[in-house]
Amino acid sequence: MMAASIAALVFLANPASAAEGQHARTVLKRLTVAADPMTEAFGARVVMPLDVKNASRWADVLRRQEASLATPAACADPAADQCFASFWAETIAELKTLPRDAQVRRVNDVVNQLGYWSDRDVYRKADYWATPEEMFEKMGGDCEDFALFKYFLLRAAGVPAEDLRMTLVASDDQAHMVSLVMVDGAPVVMDCVVLRAAPPAELSQYQAVYSLSETGAWFLAAADQPAGVQTALAEQSR
C-alpha cells in the first residue's frame, strides 16, 4: 500500500496550477457526468473527467510499456522463469486460450507470486510506476506495479481497454492501487492485498478515488457524497 495521503495522490492524477485549480472548483459546481460502469460497483460516481494526458505517471508508463514490448531486453537464459521475453510470450499464448474469467484468475495468481516492496527500496524514489519487464527483473514491486502488470497482461491477451481500469482506492486514509476488469458484464477487482479476484461489493474497505484507462480518466466520489466533497477534491488538486 502506498504511504501517501489521498490529497497527494489526487494531485498526482491532475497536477493543476493554482489558476487551474480555481477553474476546476468552478466547473465542479455545475458539472454532471455519467457514472463510470466500471467503478459504479464501488458505490462511486464520476465527479470530474480528467484529461488522461495530465495523468503524468500513467502516460509515462504507457510509453515505456510500448517500448518494452517493442524491444525486450536480451536474455542470457531463455527459460521463461529467467527471461521476461520468454515469460511474456508463453503467458500471453496461454491466456489467449482461456475464457475471460479464467484469464483473470490466472493473471492474478501469476503476478501475486512476486514480492512486495517499496519504490524507495527498489528504485530509490518516493513513487515509481514500473513496467512488467522492470517488475519481472526486480521480482517484485509495490501495489501500482502489481496492478499495472495485471492490466498489461490482460491487454496483451486481447482484453479491450474499455473493459479495464487502473483504480486508486482509499483504505483508512491510505492510498492503494488495484486493477479492475469486466467479467460477464460485471467488474472484478484484482488486488495484491486481497489475493483472490473479487467483486467490489466484497471489498467494502476500499473507497474509489480516481480511475484510469487508455481512453479516459476520472475523479470519483461515493454516490452519497454531497457537492461539497466534489469541491474539496478539486481543492486537493491545487
Summarize the structure.
The protein is of the alpha+beta class and about 240 residues long.
What does this structure look like?
This protein has 238 residues and is α+β, with helices and mostly antiparallel strands. Helix content is 40%, strand content 19%. It has one domain: C8orf32 fold (Roll), CATH 3.10.620.30. A hairpin with a 2-residue loop joins strand 4 (164-171) and strand 5 (174-183). Helix 2 runs antiparallel to helix 9 (227-236). The longest helix is centred in the N-terminal third of the chain and has 15 residues, at 56-70. The radius of gyration is 18 Å and the shape is globular.
Distance between the termini: 24 Å
Question: Could you give a short account of the major beta sheet?
Answer: 6 strands, antiparallel
Task: Provide the CATH architecture.
Answer: Roll
Mean pLDDT: 80
Q: What percent strand?
A: 15-25%
Calculate Rg over CA atoms.
Answer: 18 Å
- SSE order, as H and E? HHEHHHEHHEHEEEEEH
Spans where pLDDT lies below 50 across 5 or more residues = 3-32, 227-238
Domains, number: 1
Quaternary state of the chains: single chain
Continuous helix count: 9
The outline comes out as: globular
Mind telling me the CATH class?
A: Alpha Beta
Structural class from helices and strands? Answer: alpha+beta
